[in-house]
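Hi C.,

You asked whether I'd gotten around to modeling the 271-residue construct. I have! Everything is below, sequence then structure, no commentary in between.
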Amino acid sequence: MAETDANKPKKKKDAGKAPEPKTVAEAKSLEEIPYWQLTDDEVLLRSPEPEDEYKTSDSWRVFRIMGEFVGGFDNMATVTRGVSIFGSARTPEDDEMYQAARETARLLAEAGLEIITGGGPGIMEAANRGAYEAGKVSVGCNIELPFEQTANPYQTKSLSFKYFFVRKTIFIKYSNAYIIFPGGFGTMDELFEALTLIQTKKIRNFPVVLFGSQYWRGLLAWVTSTMLNEKYIGEADLSLIHLTDSPSEAVNFIIKTSGALEKKPVGRKIR
């Protein structure tokens, strides 16, 4: 019977391949197949199909999102002097940018600031490592990815998020400044979100440091020669961007402009 099974040739022909899921329900059923390691973000952002039996599942998913916000807020409640450091997860330990991020984080931590990263390898590991080695607060906001990100071991406080937008809210809410090391799309995303919030006055007194002049020079040249020249942005929009190649200069700029050290640390949580 097995040899005459009408489905057998098709399975053999399509071995290792999964059909494109048409509904959220089908997408969830494919999560165990390596190629279809769907994240909660992807399932949430998938448009429902007319035949989807679970059209109301997005409404119930709000409770999971709410729980993730509550957990993040509760765990980060004592972080009042945070500085987030971003950069590529692909930066190796022997890279000069890894060492610069490690030194920058150490100096910030020794000055009384709390280091926040995405919790993964590369620049994130370097920054957490600098704060950890200084014996200070080293926060990692880890994210669930299809190909799992391994949390680095230099975290004194480790959080895990399913949704990128929840995680990004935590970065903004608990940071007094951003330091952006060379990186890819994710790094650019964090950079331009911060600049957008500054431009629209959703946040105030939020310095953004770009570390690595050679890496950022081309982007800044385009921003000033094209975006600014075409009047899509104003000079004031770039007033808090600081370009540097020096860990000590980055730290001094943040201390001077963020006002973070003027904040009193939280003594206890208010419930």
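If it helps when you're writing up: The mean pLDDT is 85.

Thanks,
B.
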